[in-house]
Every structure is written in structure tokens, then in C-alpha cells.
């Protein structure tokens, strides 16, 4: 959403708009790990993840109500004579017939799983094991 909307609205200064959106996105990438690192010793892993969830749900709600499209939607869901929401294809399985698309969806899923899971689990395990190692040394 952060990258799609500015590129849709800006023509002349699109590069600057996308740069600001990318900078805002990367700010979260800096702030959240620091927050998690400081929250885990105080409130535990589970509640740290919940706090992050609550922050993100508030921010996404603000984004949901403030971001708008420039063009009208292609399907009018308010027109009940055409079927309303039934005419919307939520998952287009036809797209998965294209092998390139299927492979990129699988690849992106594996990248996200493989990239972010170690960041959280290694930091959590290192923090807990470091405390354990300190106990055995003294």
C-alpha cells in the first residue's frame, strides 16, 4: 500500500514520493527490532509480539481510513442488480496457471518465512541462552 499509492498519485515528483514512502517503511524496520529487544526482558516474548500487533493494527487502521484511490473502482459493489460483492473475485486461481507467477509467489513466501523467522527466534533464543550461560559461569 505504501508504494502503490504514491506511484499512483504522483507523476512529476514520483521518485521523491516513493523515496519518502520507502524511508517511512524502513523506519519501522529500525524501530520495531529495538522495541522488541527492550520489551522481551520486561514483559516476555508473547506480550512483546502482542504490543507490536497493537501498534500495527492502530497504524493500519489510520492508513485504511486516510489512503484513497485516484480512479473509481472497476467493479461497482454497491449495485445489487449486478451481484454486489459476489462479482468480486477474491482469489483468481487462473493466475496460478502461469508457472512464472506460481514460482514467484512460492519464492516470495519462502523468502519472507526464511528471512524474518530467524531474526525473531535467534534474538529471542540468544537473549534467553545468554542469561543461562551467565548463570553457569558464576
Low-confidence stretches: none
Give the helix level as a range of percent.
Answer: over 70%
Shape by Cα distribution: elongated
Number of E-state strands: 0
Structural class: mainly alpha
Number of helices: 4
Structurally, how many domains make up the residues? 2
The ordered H/E elements are HHHH
- Average pLDDT, rounded to a whole number, is 81
> What does the largest sheet look like?
none
**Cα-to-Cα separation, first versus last residue:** 51 Å
Oligomeric state as shown: single chain
* Beta-strand content: under 5%
Calculate Rg over CA atoms: 21 Å
Give an account of the 3D structure.
With about 140 residues, this protein is an all-alpha fold. The protein has two domains: about 1-70, no CATH class; about 75-138, no CATH class. It has helices spanning about 5-10, 15-45, 45-65, 100-135. α2 packs antiparallel against α3 (about 45-65). The longest helix has about 40 residues, at about 100-135. The model has no long low-confidence stretch (mean pLDDT about 80).
Amino acid at each position: 500500500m505504501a508504494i502503490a499509492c504514491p506511484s499512483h498519485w504522483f507523476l512529476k515528483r514520483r521518485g521523491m514520493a516513493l523515496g519518502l514512502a520507502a524511508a517511512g517503511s524502513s523506519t519501522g524496520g529500525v524501530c520495531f527490532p529495538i522495541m522488541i529487544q527492550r520489551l522481551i526482558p520486561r514483559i516476555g516474548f508473547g506480550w512483546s509480539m502482542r504490543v507490536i500487533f497493537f501498534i500495527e493494527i492502530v497504524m493500519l487502521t489510520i492508513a485504511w481510513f486516510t489512503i484513497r484511490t485516484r480512479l473509481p473502482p472497476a467493479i461497482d459493489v454497491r449495485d445489487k442488480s449486478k451481484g454486489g460483492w459476489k462479482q468480486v473475485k477474491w482469489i483468481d486461481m487462473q493466475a496460478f496457471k502461469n508457472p512464472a507467477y506460481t514460482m514467484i509467489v512460492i519464492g516470495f513466501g519462502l523468502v519472507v518465512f526464511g528471512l524474518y523467522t530467524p531474526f525473531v527466534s535467534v534474538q529471542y533464543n540468544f537473549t534467553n541462552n545468554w542469561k543461562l550461560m551467565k548463570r553457569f559461569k558464576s
